[in-house]
Amino acid sequence: MTDGAGLRQAARRIRAGILELSHRGQSAHIGSCLSVADILAAVYWGGLAITPENIASPDRDRLLFGKGHAAAAILAALAERGFFPREKLADFNRDGGELQEHPGPGWPAGVEIAAGSLGYAPPLAAGLALAARIQGRNFRVCAVMGDGECEEGSVWEAAMFAGGKQLVNLAALIDANSWQATGRTAEITGLEPLGIKWEAFGWRARELDGHNPEEIRTALAEFGRGDRPVALIARTVKGKGVSFMEDDNNWHYRTLSDGDLAKALRELKDGT
Amino acid sequence: MRNAFIDELLILARRDPRIVALSSDIGNRMFDRFAAACPGRFINTGIAEAGMTGIAAGLALAGLRPFTYTIASFNPGRCLEQIRLDLCQPNLPVTLVGIGAGLSYASLGPTHHALEDMAWLRAIPNMTIVCPGDPLETRAAVRAALAQDGPLYIRLGKKGEPVCHRNIPEFRIGKAIEIKSGSDAVLLAVGTTLPLALAAAERLAEMGITAAVHSFHTVKPLDGELLGSIFSRTAPVAVIEEHAPAGGAWSGIAEWLAERGGGRAPLLRFGTPDAFFHEAGGQDWARKRSGLEAGVIASRISEVLSSRAGEKRAAPL
Fold first, then answer.
1. How would you class B202 by CB atoms within 10 Å of its CB: exposed for 0-12, middle for 13-18, buried for 19 or more?
2. N or C, fewer C-beta in 10 Å, chain A?
3. Least CB-CB distance to B90: which of A114, A135, A157?
């Protein structure tokens, strides 16, 4: 398995991919993409049993990427891990291309669901986790979503259902970057404290450093053995990895100029 | 229709392990036999229609064949975007079952009236809409839903509807069933109004007018072959449905006709108004208030026929 340095290297390449894709496609939500990069490195470099080799197997683990606005992040991660040829990325946000700005059904293997409207991944993930039980399969299901996304009622419909049915093969992995589109999540609604909300719905909640891919990978590798579903609350920084984007919510909307791209890539290269 | 639905689903589920029944806490005791016969495959998701629809999509992604069940005003109303994005966009084989079509639950008030459901669903690509006309068509529709591969809505009445067919009819999605032939008028009955259409045809017969009656059970896709045939003739065509004017079967047929430059036959609508019902009253009362009565339907068709005959007589002048 890839060691810690390799994991961090993968995350750095995902970040570079995000920047290049977002620049080429002139797409926004760059801050949301950068906050989830270490999570995706942990998922695809050993955290879940999803590989280019097993992607068609009904027994593979499933990652449901709910925060569809961070499409560039999952595309960059899947391309980096070799799920599809890099050349396909040229299609992203190109007129007539197959890769729209939010994931759709025509996306490459590895993207299990369309996403863009929020709060969708938890019910779908609960359904898949339940399907494993009905079919007698051993796969696990992980829904990745944002913290702001947890304001959607459908998240809690699924949370209550999965807690009640003790879907132990289910995890919610929350990229808690503390921002949503127009402000701080903690200020807009009573979202925090998040962990005890999930606990109250019958889940085991755990706080993680969302920029420590080894810690996330270990947590992902472990879930499924307990007596209840698991909520992994990964505390992250929006825009992580690029100094002039970190914790600046303007990068929810802004797109990259040529100069921004060069500067951001230089920082990534110099970073460790 | 309710009993026919669950009986048929149970028959199918005993031999098809992919079938999973989901209910958002509706159907008291209705799923008991299913749950006993198919352990683990009946899921009460709680009062959570959006969640239920997403869960069904997840089950379908793993290759299962879910049927979601609740009251027609909530399924599709409460989970419309989930239907659009989780089911229709990826074209997943999930069957939505709405109980309480149209005015079936009239006495419960507007929360339980399903008079816009077809409009909502007709607008979504990949969706199929089936409105069985009696308990036997209900059984056939459940079989047909399982035999196809996309999202499908079955719009059911309630309990105790009369049986209009002798046997389970040959049922094809998108192909209306002729129940009675006739040449002076054509009655297209949508779902629960099939007995009403047959009663209207009897009234017309008493007036010496022969009316064909079709169970027009599929509202999307429309039976273009039948429509092409009836609108090439001049006999008036009446659509009878428990649905608002916008977006139902009448609306769909009117659109179909407009796209083709209109037909020779007049198109009449018998349905509910573009208004909420604020008064209490049962299904019969609410139908009466909407002009969904055999006598009213027959009189209007007779008037249309008389005025046309008058026009013809007047034409040479």
1. middle
2. C
3. A114
What tens digit of pLDDT does each residue of A85-143 get?
A: 999 999 999 999 989 999 987 788 889 998 999 999 999 999 999 999 999 999 999 99
Number of domains composing chain B: 2
Burial B62-89 (b: 16+ CB within 10 A, else e): bebbbbbbbbbbbbbbbbbbbbbbbbbb
Report CA torsion sign: A16, A22, A24, A25: positive
Q: Detail the DSSP E strand segments found in A124-253.
A: 141-146, 170-176, 179-180, 183-184, 204-209, 230-235
Query: Cα(B52)–Cα(B68) distance, rounded to whole angstroms?
Result: 7
ipTM of the complex: 0.95
Same domain for B73 and B130?
Answer: yes
> Which residues on chain A place their C-beta less than 8 Å from a C-beta of chain B?
58, 104-105, 112-114, 116-117, 120, 122-135, 137, 141, 153-154, 157-158, 160-161, 164
CA pair distance B121, B77, nearest whole angstrom: 9
Count of domains for chain A? 1
Which tokens in the block code for residue A187? 């200020």
Structural domain including B23 reads 2-156
CATH of the domain at B94: 3.40.50.970
What domain range is A160 assigned to?
4-270
